[in-house]
Design a protein that fits this description.
single chain, alpha/beta, two-stranded antiparallel ribbon, globular, binds inosine 5'-triphosphate
Length: 218
């Protein structure tokens, strides 16, 4: 069976592709549709993206919405994770009050997002540096039916400074609960994939896929 992966983020494609490589299905990247993420939560945006990409690709499509949640920042960056450094925050820095698209290249945006989180947490000690990644993954058909929906989390905290060159996004500042003080960007891809939020949701996806393929075998 052939699936499309609907995202503009090459880091997600790499991880989804490598975690699913042994399933016997093929996973093809779609055009970067990049629909506006108008919903307020990860689930709403994951469903919106899966439907928009599936309609464009004309085949069953996997999309996901993910981000970083920091309780000490009132849950931010949250649904604003991808564009956090373009956001205007209120004085308490726990709420987004405005947003202006800068359309900077992804690497520049990721770096600015990480710097902003580090600045907001300057002087904050553990355990208030606790953080978690969350992902909601959805599989949609071109006519908008949702075949699968699942959630994954990974827990840890925000490092004092960015470290490491692997991974993408917030990986240089996120230390996992079981990574012996290393950031996700200091782990090789296999070690990150073993414990990431994406791995957790893709495990449920693989179980669903097995059932789906058995039921739809020609
Ligand atoms: P698409 O919407 O096109 O899929 P995106 O990068 O805009 O790509 P999201 O809106 O889902 O994706 O935003 C996710 C944000 O969270 C973005 O800043 C990512 O870099 C970050 N993120 C998600 N998973 C991550 C991971 O495993 N490691 C580090 N950062 C991650």
């Amino acid at each position: 069976m052939r699936f499309f992966i609907g995202t503009t983020n090459p880091g997600k494609v790499r991880e989804i592709g490598s975690i699913l490589s042994a399933t016997g299905c093929s996973f093809e990247r779609t055009e970067p549709v990049d629909p506006e993420e108008t919903e307020e939560d990860f689930e709403g945006n994951a469903l919106l993206k899966a439907r928009a990409y599936a309609a464009r690709a004309g085949g069953v499509t996997i999309s996901e919405d993910s981000g970083l949640i920091i309780p000490a920042l009132g849950g931010l960056p949250g649904a604003w994770s991808a564009r956090f450094s373009d956001c205007e925050l209120d004085a308490g820095a726990g709420r987004v009050v405005g947003h202006r698209r800068s359309d900077r290249p992804r690497e520049e945006m990721d770096r600015a997002n990480n710097e902003r989180v580090l600045e907001l947490l300057a002087g904050v000690e553990l355990p208030r540096r606790a953080a978690m990644f969350i992902v909601v993954l959805a599989v949609a058909t071109p006519d908008g039916e949702i075949l699968f929906k699942g959630t994954g989390e990974s827990h840890g905290w925000i490092a004092d400074a960015a470290r490491g060159a692997n991974g993408f996004g917030y990986d240089p500042i996120f230390v996992g609960q079981d990574t012996f003080g290393k950031t996700y960007a200091e782990l090789d891809s296999m070690r990150k994939n073993l414990r990431s939020h994406r791995m957790r949701v893709l495990k449920d996806f693989k179980a669903w896929l097995g059932r789906y393929l058995r039921e739809h075998r020609p």
